[in-house]
Amino acid sequence: MKEKIQQKIFITGASSGIGRETAIRLAKEGHKVFAGIRRKTDKQELEKLSENITGVYIDITNDSSITKAFWYVMKKTDKLDVLINNAGIVVAGPLEFLSVKQIKEQFDVNTFGSLAVTQKFLPLLKDAKVINISSMAASGIFPYISPYCASKRASDILLNSFALECKENIKFISVKPAAVKTPIWNKSALKAHENLKDVSDINKQKYEKEFFALKQNASDNNTKALEIYVVVDKLIKIIKSKNPKQSYNIGFAATAADWASKLPLGFINKLIKWKLNHL
Ligand SMILES: NC(=O)c1ccc[n+]([C@@H]2O[C@H](COP(=O)([O-])OP(=O)(O)OC[C@H]3O[C@@H](n4cnc5c(N)ncnc54)[C@H](OP(=O)(O)O)[C@@H]3O)[C@@H](O)[C@H]2O)c1
């Protein structure tokens, strides 16, 4: 019988959604998982589920937290086989009303956070894989979540630069799922509500239809989006693969967005405007 090879994997944002399910599945398959969390209760809950899971406190927007997490993992292993940059948030709303500070928060987590974690953990990554959980939003064609789109595109560009520049034997892989049924959409709706609370009623009325569609979309994603296991299955395949591709779309909508983003911008914008006019 072929013996299963145990891999050592660090995943950020393992308290919920894709990160949590991936950590649990990998641990079940016998891998050693370092699960990035921010709360004691999340650490306790995950560690109770499997002795293969070790919770690691990490806020990816905080340098000293990243450094502490690095030393914590370093004390337990001298090598990681896989780093999964999964932690992420969605900042949504009309660009005209979002402050630069609010947009910076989007980049601080999705772009600079993932970058800082990758840089810090490089010394542990030997013959390894770095997987960024990007998104179909990286295609850049979705209005009202443009900070999210831009943060994911920027993160993909930086990841690709690692692939070109890095002297170590590390494979850098971007995974771009379509919408997935996770808490991220409800969190994003709450965040949008908070971020836009000072916008005047007159201004809000300008975008009434779009606000409604955004809310509807968030709630549709709870029922109509991809199941988490579809993403987890793909991640497991990538982790096992000796020769993974550099980029994966997951779900029909992700492939369609990828293709659409290659069409002339004027044409694709006309289509999107038409759709917005018919909300
Ligand atoms: N769901 C989708 O439709 C979808 C589609 C494509 C790509 N993605 C991407 O998939 C990844 C996971 O998202 P999800 O859908 O599973 O969402 P989720 O359930 O909301 O999980 C997000 C995770 O990120 C963590 N996180 C947020 N800010 C953090 C920070 N500053 N430091 C450390 N951890 C932080 C959260 O931790 P706390 O619990 O501590 O806040 C949580 O564990 C994200 O990168 C997202 O952009 C999601």
Radius of gyration: 19 Å
CATH topology: Rossmann fold
- Heteromolecules bound: NADP nicotinamide-adenine-dinucleotide phosphate
Strand fraction band?
Answer: 15-25%
Which regions are unreliable across 5 or more consecutive residues at pLDDT < 50? none
Number of H/I helices:
11
Query: In CATH's first tier, which class applies?
Result: Alpha Beta
By CATH, the architecture is named 3-Layer(aba) Sandwich
Helix-strand pattern, N to C? Answer: EHEHEHEHEHEHHHHEHH
Q: Mean of residue pLDDT?
A: 95
Structural class: alpha/beta
In spatial order, strands of the major sheet run 3-2-1-4-5-6-7
Tell me the count of domains. Answer: 1
- Quantity of strands, as a count: 7
Largest pleated sheet: 7 strands, parallel
> At the fourth CATH level, what is the homologous superfamily?
NAD(P)-binding Rossmann-like Domain
The end-to-end distance, rounded to whole angstroms, is: 57 Å
Helical residues, percent: 40-55%
Task: Describe what this molecule looks like in 3D.
This protein has a seven-stranded parallel beta sheet with strand order 3-2-1-4-5-6-7, sandwiched between helices. It has 279 residues and is an alpha/beta fold. The chain has one domain (8-277): NAD(P)-binding Rossmann-like Domain (Rossmann fold), CATH 3.40.50. It has eleven helices and seven strands. The longest helix is centred in the middle third of the chain and has 22 residues, at 100-121. Helix 5 (146-165) links the parallel strand 5 and strand 6 (170-177). The protein has helices spanning 17-28, 40-49, 63-76, 100-121, 146-165, 184-195, 201-206, 208-221, 228-240, 252-260, 265-277, and strands spanning 8-11, 32-37, 53-57, 80-85, 125-133, 170-177, 247-250. Helix 1 crosses helix 9 (228-240), helix 4 (100-121) packs parallel to helix 5 and helix 6 (184-195) packs antiparallel against helix 8 (208-221). It is globular. The site of NADP nicotinamide-adenine-dinucleotide phosphate (NAP) has 30 residues, from helix 1, helix 4 and helix 6.
